[in-house]
Amino acid sequence: MESKKEGLSNGCLWIFLTFILTVVAFGVIKFAINLPNLITLFIAILLSLTLTFKILGKPSIKSILFNVTILIIVFSGLNYLGGFWNEIIHQNDTAVFTEEESVATDTIFENNNIIPVFTSRRNWKDNYGNPYTGNLTVRQKDYDRLKNHIATFRYGNEPNFWGNLYNYIDEKDTPSLDLVMNTFKEIHAEKKLNQMEFAEMVVSCIQDIPYSFVFQDDCLPADNYEDAIKDILKDCPDCCIGDVLYGVQNPVSFIKNLKGDCDTRTMLIYSILNYFNYDVAIANSDFYRHSIIGINIAATGKNKKYKGKTYMLWETTSKHFKIGVLPATSSDVKHWNIVLTSK
């Protein structure tokens, strides 16, 4: 007959205790070091196994393999459901424009001249609760020069229309985003961020800006649209800007008015991360009628393979979405296509 301790080490109590210790260890490691989820889980399981062995005794090799397999399946399921529950919890998080979201007219002193600018003071937290503050600023003269430049875009019969358009916008706008880049440089220097933390800081800054529709036609009253659009516009009638060619704002215009939908946001993030030498991509989906960002970086979650690289997908239209976590309504990666990469 097995001893009592050996029975405990092979039974449900062993699984339960290991699960609880793994959850605790995962949370502590993630908070303290913020490693990728897969690495964090691996370390957490090793630590929990060590503690469980000391408390309940060591089970048979067969039981260890069986129980660890169960733990991996459970955590994989929880990771998948995380994106679903994240969407359910935050599906009504669409922000309404307030005084805090307004863009002010200001001036800066540059090259012995007083230069008018548009600026907004941003205060936000990333998806791990780290607070940041900084100004998003563009010169008025740059906005006036670039606000309608998309109309000069010319394309022939190239199959990748959106990729060519985004690349054109990036090349035109990036030199005039230098004040925005300076803000992120200052945050990087002050906080001493690593590569993943810096990307998280940039993306969460744009996620924090309230969502607005950008239509090629005029904005109409809410009742003229399908339910998904109607519900947002009823709560926030100002969350719409119309008469914008191709339904996408260039980054300088977005900074000027803070009105951005999916590809307006991905376009700005792409330009910023490209400037800071990230291997970044824009992924579009005709099926979902949506656009998201992709980053070739060590992480776990939803991703898209493209030309031998793995781009981690990242939702940008709402707060609380971490890298690799997509809304349940747009999570099938087969419907996503990479349309532009920086490298």
Describe the protein's architecture and organization:
34% of the residues are buried. The chain has two domains: 4-90, no CATH class; 99-341, no CATH class. Helix 2 packs across helix 3 and helix 2 (12-32) crosses helix 4 (61-90). The protein is 45% helix and 17% strand. The radius of gyration is 24 Å and the shape is elongated. It has 343 residues and is an alpha+beta fold. The strands form three sheets. It has a five-stranded antiparallel beta sheet with strand order 8-9-7-6-10. The chain crosses the membrane at residues 12-33, 39-57, 64-85. Keywords: Membrane, Transmembrane, Transmembrane helix.
Which secondary structure elements does this structure contain, and how are they paired or packed?
Blueprint: H1 4-10, H2 12-32, H3 37-56, H4 61-90, E1 104-110, E2 113-125, E3 131-139, H5 140-146, H6 161-173, H7 178-191, H8 195-207, E4 213-214, H9 227-235, E5 240-241, H10 251-257, H11 262-275, E6 280-285, E7 290-295, E8 303-306, E9 309-314, E10 337-341
Parallel strand pairs: 4-5
Antiparallel strand pairs: 1-2, 2-3, 6-7, 6-10, 7-9, 8-9
Helix pairs in contact: 2-3, 2-4, 6-11, 8-11
Transmembrane segments: 12-33, 39-57, 64-85
Keywords: Membrane, Transmembrane, Transmembrane helix
